[in-house]
Amino acid sequence: MDEQRINFSLEQEEPPAVAIRTTAPSEKEQKIQYASIAERFVALLIDYGIIFIPLQLISVPLVKWLKPEWDLWQFVAMFLSFHLVFILYQTIFSCGDRVTLGKSLVGIAVMKQDGSGPISFPRAFLRSVGYYISAVLFMGGFFLAFIDDQRRSLHDRLGGSIVVELRPKSTGEKVILRLVGGALLMAFGWVAYSQILGGGAMMDQIYVSQAKSHLRKLAQLEEEHNVRYGYYTNDLARLYLLSGDPVQFQRDTQKALERRGFNIGVSDDSYKIVAHAKDKTHTLVVFQP
């Protein structure tokens, strides 16, 4: 991605010597125009989208292809890696004389709190992590911008930064930014609901993968039981005892599998485990060697 570079110099031509100067507000305050909350919101959603949409387009077919072999920790690792990419992107393009694509399109940039220039890499990193701290606090960190004179959110305070306008905007541009922000918010809200609260594809696959992984663990206990006692069993209590921690393994079973529909069928030389995952549609999962 080509770097978007900006000139942080806020110097203006000195007025004629005969110009009358006033003491309030100060010259520096007159020069700095803080970015509006709408501008910052639109820029953040654009930046979020250009990172997560391509990654999700890649990950969904990959998960569908590999899901029989994936365990829950692998889904979690993939999810965390997406956010690490976002943090690195925000960090790199918020320090030096760079701006993120979203901020470049909107016409805003991150600066030191005193307006003297760009923030450092460590400060930019703290600022990027601050997005997630704000989110964990039920979005409370973002709402600080509504009551701060410099419109600073929690992540701005962590980074010792402000967000300023790079160019003036007409009334029409401001209206368009608000409309785009509203549309993006609804789009991301729908995705969040469908993927998490609505039991969307990604969460469903995590539940199914978790169920299949647990069935493989039960199958390993069946094999161990056969080696020790010479036969397969449909007695879960015996399998729990072989796990080494029967109480925890029973809890793991109840967490991964629906009670209804669970069955272990055994014969002299084989077995079949049937269960239902705890996803939205209670997907049937089967293990048979």
Tell me about this structure:
It is a single chain. The protein is mainly alpha-helical. The chain has two domains: 4-197, no CATH class; 211-287, no CATH class. Helices cover 56% and strands 10% of the residues. The chain has eleven helices and seven strands. The chain has helices at 27-31, 37-66, 72-92, 101-106, 121-136, 140-143, 154-159, 171-197, 201-229, 236-242, 246-256, and strands at residues 4-5, 98-99, 108-112, 161-165, 263-266, 271-276, 284-287. A three-stranded antiparallel β-sheet has the order 5-6-7, with helices on one face. Helix 10 (236-242) packs across helix 11. The chain is elongated, with a radius of gyration of 28 Å.
Domain unit count? 2
The averaged pLDDT comes out at 82
Shape: elongated
Strand order of the largest sheet: 5-6-7
